[in-house]
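S.,

As promised, the flavin-adenine dinucleotide run. Input:
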Amino acid sequence: MEHIVIIGNGISGVTLARHIRKRSDAKISIISAETNYFFSRTALMYVFMGHMKFEHTQPYENDFWKKNNINLIHKKVSEVFPKEKSLLLDGNTVITFDKLVIATGSKPNKFGWPGQDLEGVTGLYFKQDLENLEKWAPTTKRAVIVGGGLIGIELAEMMRARNIEVTFLVREDSFWNGVLPKGESQMINRHIKEHHIDLRLSTGLKEIIADENGRTKAIITDKDETIECQIVGLTAGVSPNIDFLKTSGIELGRGVKVNRFLETNFKDIYAIGDCAEQHEGIGERRPIEAVWYTGRMMGESLAQTLTGNPMEYKPGHWFNSAKFLDIEYQTYGWVWAKEKENETHFYWEHKGGKKAIRIAFDTESRRFLGINTFGIRMRHEFFDKVLTDQQSVDYVIENLAAANFDPEFYTSHKKEIQIEFTKQCVGLKNESL
Ligand SMILES: Cc1cc2nc3c(=O)[nH]c(=O)nc-3n(C[C@H](O)[C@H](O)[C@H](O)COP(=O)(O)OP(=O)(O)OC[C@H]3O[C@@H](n4cnc5c(N)ncnc54)[C@H](O)[C@@H]3O)c2cc1C
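Predicted complex:
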């Protein structure tokens, strides 16, 4: 019987295993160094904040895997030998495969800062990071978080939930401004400060200093300021967790290079999820997509391919969602931080400064290109259809009520949004001609 081995039990690996099992009796093994059972990484913060127990992050009962005849191996893969079709586990056990799928996810970036491996320094990625934070939190007065993205702000929220003071170092001059346009980025700067987080923009980390026991006691910024702290959170992005493949001969870039069928340069060896890198990004997408739903989609597509129905990975329209403290953020289609030449952006921000909408559209044709929403929940299906149907921005504005989960919000702000839209964007085409 064919043996399919999956390295990594994150969302991409387990989705793949479940979907293969629906379609085939192949022998399936999932190997993970982190935990026995799959858990939702995105929920780690809620465990720390006491909203749920760790068990609640595990969507499947522990006996689910046995019942579905999926073999779980709790070990680290130290090396892969593509030609021999074998793997080395924990440096001492060899197993063989017919097909191999690398689904090893990401790891937090470390940029060689002095002191980056001290006790008290952690990323927020693995279950072990959560355990360390639990251990250190009771004796921590201040945490310094380095890197202003989605994970950094989650860590800041976690620390504040335990009344730990937070200094947040953001290298850019405004929060996440490589992704968020100016209006939204500045709104989030203000929101962070209102949550009593000491936000330091245009500031980086130079060094982490140890006390006499080798534990973190302070950091020094690139402006030579010393800040006392007991925890340092390294959240300056993630990169594919693929160091163990360096000698394998599998083609690597930043991630594991794959084609549209998610296959590597070796037949029968594939990569999915955060660690996979397309030779060329699909449409406007980046070659590496480190998000939850794309990992799931790659798992679903590859399950088809591995069970006799070759299927290209076609992710459809881009969307994403996150939370900046208590402001929910959603994005559909493409809204770039800076308008491209052919684009116009419409931006509306509620006077309370906690809700905003930005819509990008093609200036000539008025085709809707994408939307960012803050503090307002929109319906995925609506925007998926609007993007597929290539509707105009005017259609979207007219139908925003249908897109909105919160009818009350829309009733009270509809007029204001429409007036603002007319002011900013109607008649634009004629003016620009
Ligand atoms: C705190 C946090 C919040 C997030 N929030 C969001 C969000 O709101 N929305 C969103 O879209 N995305 C979010 N993400 C990103 C999302 O969680 C990832 O995109 C997703 O988990 C990647 O899944 P994966 O299956 O590719 O890999 P992973 O989940 O990283 O799983 C890979 C597994 O492989 C194991 N492994 C690695 N190397 C080896 C080896 N050599 N041997 C054995 N096992 C190995 C790892 O230990 C890990 O368990 C968040 C991530 C974090 C950390």
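The pocket of flavin-adenine dinucleotide is lined by residues 7-13, 31-34, 41-42, 44, 76-77, 103-106, 124-125, 151, 154, 241, 244, 273-274, 290-293, 295, 322 (CB under 6 Å). The longest strand covers residues 327-333.

- D.
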